[in-house]
Design a protein that fits this description.
Elements (H helix, E strand, L loop, with lengths): L2 H11 L12 E4 L7 E7 L2 H9 L4 E6 L11 H12 L3 E4 L2 H5 L5 H8 L6 E6 L2 E14 H5 L6 E4 L4 E8 L7 H6 L4 E4 L6 H8 L2 E4 L2 H4 L2 H14 L2 E4 L7
Parallel strand pairs: 2-3, 2-11, 3-4, 8-9, 9-10
Antiparallel strand pairs: 1-4, 5-6, 6-8, 7-10
Helix pairs in contact: 5-10
Length: about 240
């Protein structure tokens, strides 16, 4: 399949142009024209690049791309990364906020699905756009039981033991804590913990589950991989490169 066809599908499906983002979303590095296999990963890094090559991929789709606002200099680490991709003909495509907020395969929709909740309302305003979602269980669920749905988590148990109203904002989502408290959310699920979150959540009576930045943002990448494989009929692979952060 042509690289241009794949990019056109991704651009439209993810509404790439619909977000003001620090990431240069879309095709960041152009490799070979014909694509037979696409790799998916959370981060654009040499470990992911090497794994993509080892898996025979012609293209790598990531959540955290390599270009954020532009490239100032092509030297050092940037030169090595760009050189590796071009030398091996691997295209790099990035989707940051568009993959957080997507209604079907977004990180936050998929986090809620993981705990048996259906995304209902948009939540978590970031740069004028809500990138997360909230949901409500038909009956209360234990915070500890919800946390067990994930491989690893850090819990701030400052609210009710059982909750109905939950929200998910993947990655660095502590900016949404105040919004959660104001909107009566009883459990916020996010990625990366921040020191300031502790007392705000405690005083606001809010439960928080931190999954880790990486783990909270693999859900959308894996879901997007499934969609691409099904709709484009192309071979895909997910590359797991955890940071434990």
């Amino acid at each position: 399949m042509k690289l241009t066809e794949i990019c056109e599908f991704l651009d439209e499906y993810l509404n790439i142009k619909g977000y003001q983002d620090v990431s240069n979303n879309g095709l960041q590095v152009e490799g070979r024209e014909e694509i037979e296999k696409i790799a998916f990963a959370v981060d654009a890094c040499m470990e992911s690049f090497r794994a993509a090559k080892a898996n025979g991929a012609d293209m790598l789709v990531v959540h955290h791309g390599m270009i954020w606002g532009g490239i100032d200099y092509v030297k050092g680490m940037v030169r090595k990364r760009v050189e590796y991709l071009l030398r091996n003909g691997i295209s790099l495509y990035a989707a940051h906020l568009p993959l957080d907020a997507h209604r079907e395969v977004g990180n936050n929709v998929m986090i809620l699905k993981k705990i048996g909740a259906e995304a209902q309302e948009e939540f978590g305003e970031y740069k004028g756009v809500k990138i997360g979602y909230s949901a409500e269980f038909p009956s209360p669920k234990s915070v500890m039981e919800i946390a067990e749905r994930f491989d690893r988590s850090l819990i701030l148990p400052f609210g009710k033991d059982k909750v109905r109203r939950v929200a998910a904002v993947s990655g660095r989502g502590c900016f949404a804590i105040t919004e959660a408290i104001e909107e009566g959310i009883e459990l916020l699920i996010t990625g990366e913990p921040e020191h300031e979150a502790y007392h705000i959540a405690k005083e606001g009576g809010l439960n928080i589950i931190f999954l880790g930045h990486y783990e909270s943002e693999r859900f959308g990448v894996e879901a997007l991989r499934d969609v691409v494989a099904e709709r484009l009929g192309i071979e895909t692979v997910f590359i797991y490169v955890p940071t434990n952060l």
